[in-house]
Amino acid sequence: MKAIWCRIFLFCVVLISVVHGDTTIESVLKAKGDFSDIIEGASEAGLTSLYNNPSAKETVFTPNNTGLMNTLSQLDIGAIQALQLLQNHTLLRQLLLYGTVNQSISIASLSSGSHQFPSMLGPNLTLVKNSTGAFVNDVRVIQQDIAAGASEIQVVETLLIPPNVHIS
Ligand SMILES: *[C@@H]1O[C@H](CO)[C@@H](O)[C@H](O)[C@H]1NC(C)=O
Ligand SMILES: *[C@@H]1O[C@H](CO)[C@@H](O)[C@H](O)[C@H]1NC(C)=O
Ligand SMILES: *[C@@H]1O[C@H](CO)[C@@H](O)[C@H](O)[C@H]1NC(C)=O
Ligand SMILES: *[C@@H]1O[C@H](CO)[C@@H](O)[C@H](O)[C@H]1NC(C)=O
Ligand SMILES: *[C@@H]1O[C@H](CO)[C@@H](O)[C@H](O)[C@H]1NC(C)=O
């Protein structure tokens, strides 16, 4: 009898740690499926820890794979050039840090109007909430407030590009 309770207890401990260990920005993006490019970019840039820290309290503004591709084609960047960009780790870090705020932002709890948040790169991001929806630097948020542990994921239509950073 004792042995059974002991096994049930151990099973629960293992289950809880697996569930907890899994809830990061990266695990939620992986489960959603169409964010592999941004995850690969973070890994290339040596910024995996930005997305896989279970105790982080951050907000990530990220496009999905299609949004990223649309951003590149709007900038007239072809496939070969995109691969070259992926090798520029300085640029990748700038882009990823600009899309991350070191605090948890719930858009649902924000008042209407304009709000400024410091990106982890430095420059502020401007978040506007109005009757049309939510926008970051005028880029539409297409999916709001996806919880990832204590962090939040905000899916934006295209990649946020820092001021004075030129991609090409
Ligand atoms: C890499 O990106 C940085 C920052 O955007 C830029 O200054 C630099 O010229 C780029 N390097 C190459 C080799 O393209
Ligand atoms: C993020 O904020 C926490 C406190 O909220 C702080 O301890 C930590 O150093 C910050 N991280 C970065 C990379 O700024
Ligand atoms: C950046 O946003 C903070 C509020 O989060 C504000 O206090 C600060 O003045 C802003 N900085 C600039 C340069 O707008
Ligand atoms: C809401 O804000 C966005 C981004 O600034 C803007 O493009 C849009 O026109 C605004 N909508 C209204 C109804 O003011
Ligand atoms: C992915 O992003 C694109 C462009 O922002 C958007 O049109 C599309 O609806 C998104 N896909 C999903 C499944 O949310």
TrEMBL record:
Signal peptide: 1-21
Record's keyword annotation contains Signal: yes
Family matches, as SMART domains: FAS1
Stored InterPro entries: FAS1_dom_sf (IPR036378), FAS1_domain (IPR000782)
Record carries keyword Cell cycle: no
Matches recorded under Pfam families: Fasciclin
Gene3D superfamilies listed in its UniProt record: FAS1 domain
FAS1 domain boundaries: 22-160
Source taxon at top rank: Eukaryota
Keywords: Signal
Protein name: FAS1 domain-containing protein
